[in-house]
Amino acid sequence: EVQLVESGGGLVQPGGSLRLSCAVSGFTFSNYAMNWVRQAPGKGLEWLSYIDGGGYSTYYADSVKGRFTISRDNAKNTVYLEMNSLKPEDTAVYYCNAGYWGQGTQVTVSS
Fold this sequence. Notes:
Layout: E1 3-7, E2 10-12, E3 18-25, E4 34-39, E5 45-51, E6 58-60, E7 68-73, E8 78-83, E9 92-97, E10 105-109
Parallel strand pairs: 2-10
Antiparallel strand pairs: 1-3, 3-8, 4-5, 4-9, 5-6, 7-8, 9-10
């Protein structure tokens, strides 16, 4: 059974940081590129970042470039999203994706 379990979300003040994790099971993790995607309240899905299976290539949406960093640990079957300089507009449910979806983790940026 494929499972993607996101964690690390929460309430943070503007300018703060969070580190999201996505633990994967049920497929050969290192063979799959991973993405982070978010959905803000009342809005559609927004792609944020991509990392290839080996962790050598990464890409970012302009909205998060320079603030967010994607990484992965293939030994732990986990992908991460380090988020810095958070803004209220970063408030959303964050999902990892590899053709499969997790349940998401809520990030709320508010003072």
